[in-house]
Amino acid sequence: MPLDPAAKNVLDLLASAGGTPLHESTPEEGRAAFAGLKLLGGEGAAVASCTNSTYAGVPGITVTPEGDGPFPVMVWIHGGGWVIGSADESISTARDLAAGANCIVVSLDYRLAPEHKAPSAVADCVAAVGWVLDHATEIGGDPARVAVGGDSAGGNLAALVALHYGPRLRQQVLVYPATDLTLSSPSIEENAEGYLLTKASMEWFVGHYINGSGVSASDPSISPAFAADAALAASAPAFVITAEFDPLRDEGEAYAARLEALGVQVTARRFDGQIHAFYSMPAVIPAAAEAVAQTVQILRSAFA
């Protein structure tokens, strides 16, 4: 399909704004630029509260919907290539999921690279989700109904958490996840430039995350595509979203196919015409609202 006009408008707007390409920026510059994209997510749905919290020492935001609990809990892990982004910058997504699925959303602020190399982010997310599984009642949640999800690097971390906790989780939601940090899928080259996330940006992200860490790009502790069959087969049911014009498209779809082949219940959907990061831009890309609505439907079913 052709590029969605709404996505093209975003790309044109960003191009007209100019600025240094991400792969030529410092992490601090990249973080500042990425923070400016928060407006594209809108304010998010109305909820009862958004509270700064910590979970096993990992900071984040607890988003509680209107109504009476105990609520199921969705742990949301933001994207940004393990280098940029924050729970606050993805708050509209957290609010939309909380209100739509009638669940608490725990949105994490895991440690970022290059200050904290791999696998620090993984350790934070595993620890925080473990806290939710054991202590959800302390935030008004139901520890028997916990899901995990995230977009991009957050999808990578969510997949790794799902491998760690297996059937203790009800659902994993992987939005254009980075599953293979070797960057060897065909879509890395096919969509290398022109669609917001570039091959050069991915190399910048992965470099900051793993260079000097002692962890290789193909290590299953950071690349879920290299996980053993047994771990994959035991992981939670998965909803995997990919975008047509995304360097990460093929690795997300390959991961979904492998999960399904191993007997995991998988719902996989490619959003044709879309770019990486569209999911977090419902204020300007209508397909994002459709993607969030499908996520809500799947979460409601998983939590039933």
Q: Count the strands?
A: 8
Q: Estimate what percentage of residues fall within beta strands.
A: 15-25%
Class per helix and strand makeup: alpha/beta
Order of helices and strands: HHEEEHEHEHEHHHEHEH
Number of helices: 10
The helix content is 25-40%
Indicate the overall shape.
globular
Head-to-tail CA distance between termini: 36 Å
Low confidence ranges: none
Based on CA atoms alone, the radius of gyration comes out at: 17 Å
How confident is the prediction overall: mean pLDDT? 97
Largest sheet: 8 strands, mixed
Note down, in words, how this protein is organized.
The chain has helices spanning 5-17, 27-35, 91-101, 120-135, 153-165, 186-190, 199-210, 229-233, 249-261, 286-303, and strands at 49-55, 58-64, 71-77, 104-108, 141-151, 171-175, 238-245, 266-275. By secondary structure, it is of the alpha/beta class. An 8-stranded mixed β-sheet has the order 1-2-4-3-5-6-7-8, with helices on both faces. Strand 3, helix 3 (91-101) and strand 4 (104-108) form a beta-alpha-beta unit. Helix 4 (120-135) crosses helix 5 (153-165). The protein starts with a helix and ends with a helix. The mean pLDDT is 97.
